[in-house]
Amino acid sequence: MSQNEWHRMENASKRSLRGVTYRFAQWVLSKRDPMATFLGSIPQEAEQLEVIFPGGIPERMVRRRLRMLAMYRKKELKSQTWKWWGATAASIPLFILPVTNLPLYWAVYQLHISRKAVKGATKLEGLILEWEKQRWGEATSLERLPQTENGSRKRDGPLQYKASKVLAELVDPSSRKEEAISDATVCSIGEEFGGKEELLELVQRARRLGWGRDIHAPPDSAPVT
Questions:
Q1: Nearest residue to 128 (alpha-carbon basis) of 95, 104, 160, 84
Q2: Can you name the residues that pair with 160 across neighbouring β-strands?
Q3: Is 29 strand, coil or helix?
Q4: Contact 145, 155 (CB under 8 A)
Q5: CA dist., res. 113 & res. 131, Å (int)
Q6: Do the beta carbons of residue 216 and residue 72 sit within 8 Å?
Q7: Which residues, other chains included, contact 21 with Cβ-Cβ below 8 Å and sequence gap of 6+?
Q8: pLDDT above 80: residue 87
Q9: 3-state secondary structure (DSSP) of residue 52
Q10: β-bridge mates for residue 163, sequence order
Q11: pLDDT, tens digit (0-9, with 9 covering 90-100), for 101-137
Q12: From CA 65, how far away is CA 218, in angstroms rounded?
């Protein structure tokens, strides 16, 4: 769909076909899993990723969360992909029946989202494993590497962990247990690091889904490297 057509749908009367289609499309987009969107946005050709986190949070905790995110969500998304394959196959007969094809389109769309997210999770997991292999290989141990001003270690590799004082001031991690992050704060983060509109959309979607906390957080007893 072209951008001009999308604008025409957005400005169309609510009772018109374009208006109804636009509202349905907005509803569909609002139901997307924010984490699947994030994982699906990881480029497959990426050889290095920069992970920026609030200063003051231990880097090893960030590494653990990232690794568990990739592992858990990859498993979950693979299961969802098989379910949407089944739903797509079951909906194919709708092509020859005098009924709406919307269930088929919905299944195909969700299948596409799930497959893309699985690829992103696989890519992230691969980069993490490569980073850990380099860390425990013949290279200089992490403890001997020089530190940056923010306390993170300097090293080249597939993942670059960067502690940010600016992000820490904006997010204020100590207050996040008591209150959810505001849209104004999200916008400030987006303006500072880029992707303001996309970040705000992800946070608002997560809020609508009732994500008051990280429901996929790893247990405290999870191994840490």
A1: 160
A2: 50
A3: helix
A4: yes
A5: 27
A6: yes
A7: 9
A8: yes
A9: strand
A10: 53
A11: 777 887 888 899 899 999 999 999 999 888 888 877 6
A12: 7
Type and span of the H or E element at 161: strand 159-164
- Cβ-proximal residues to 54 (8 Å cutoff; 6+ apart), any chain: 163, 164, 167, 168, 171, 173
| Residue 18 identity | R
Cβ burial, residue 110 (10 Å; 0-12/13-18/19+):
buried
Could you tell me the two tokens for 85? 């394959």
The distance of Cα 99 from the centroid of its chain, to the nearest Å, equals 35
Q: Do 165 and 191 form a contact (C-beta atoms < 8 A)?
A: no
Q: How far apart are CA 68 and CA 94, in angstroms?
A: 39
Query: What are the tokens at 209?
Result: 């889904």
Q: Give the end-to-end CA distance of the chain in Å, rounded to a whole number.
A: 46
Dihedrals phi, psi of 70, to nearest 5 degrees: -65, -45
Instruction: Report how many helices (DSSP H) and strands (DSSP E) the chain contains, helices first.
Output: 8, 2
For 159, the enclosing helix (H) or strand (E) is strand 159-164
Number of Cβ within 10 Å of residue 184's Cβ equals 8
Q: Coil, strand, or helix at residue 51? A: strand
In the chain, alpha helices (H): 3-11, 17-30, 34-40, 59-91, 102-135, 165-171, 183-193, 196-208
pLDDT, the chain, mean: 76
Please give the pLDDT value at position 196. Answer: 80
